[in-house]
Amino acid sequence: MIGVRIPDLRDLAKRIAAGDWKEYLKEATDDSFEEIMLQGLVIGYAKGQPDEIIAALKYFIPKIDNWSINDSTAMGLKIVTKHQDTFWKFIQPYLDSDREFFVRFGVVMLLSYYVDEEHISLVLERLDSITHEGYYVKMAVAWAVSVCYVKFPNITHAHLENSSLDNATYNKAIQKICESYRADEEAKNILRGMKRK
């Protein structure tokens, strides 16, 4: 870590993305947290076709070894909002991976771009299907379920009643929902009673 602040990295990433970002990614080094973070931010800001961004991500994602770079990269990919079907297909193998940050990347993509009317049921089913034991996966799945609840409380509540999430992830999801100021108190009281022992 060399101590460059994230806002400064974002400014630099925007400038790089406005130029020959592909050449930058080819030449970039992985010697520090900031250098790897910068690559992820550049991919997010890059103006490219979906296949170009996906190619860059396939090369980049194996470099991710912490939640900060993972989440900043996944949440910065605004291109996904215009190409949901393409990126939905792209993230499926990551959700099934045995590598912790591959799975977390997929989960953060789900909670960032797919918690909508068209995808909510698919997202909840997909989250239930994740069995990776990694801490950063479980935390991301719980976070994603809480996002689903805030946006679609009735659908998510009904899903939680029969969820196949492991107990720790399920209880963490309920905790996160109860910590949210966007869930009402009556619902929180019901959810607290649904916690597993």
Tags for this model:
mainly alpha; 12 helices
How would the blueprint of this fold be written?
Layout: H1 6-17, H2 21-27, H3 33-45, H4 50-60, H5 67-75, H6 84-95, H7 100-113, H8 120-128, H9 135-151, H10 153-160, H11 167-179, H12 185-193
Helix pairs in contact: 1-3, 3-4, 3-5, 5-7, 6-7, 7-9, 8-9, 9-10, 9-11, 11-12
A few lines on this structure:
This protein has helices spanning 6-17, 21-27, 33-45, 50-60, 67-75, 84-95, 100-113, 120-128, 135-151, 153-160, 167-179, 185-193. By secondary structure, the protein is mainly alpha-helical.
Describe the structure.
It is a single chain. This protein is mainly alpha-helical. The chain has twelve helices and no strands. The protein has helices at 6-17, 21-27, 33-45, 50-60, 67-75, 84-95, 100-113, 120-128, 135-151, 153-160, 167-179, 185-193. Helix 1 packs across helix 3 and helix 6 (84-95) packs antiparallel against helix 7 (100-113). The termini are far apart.
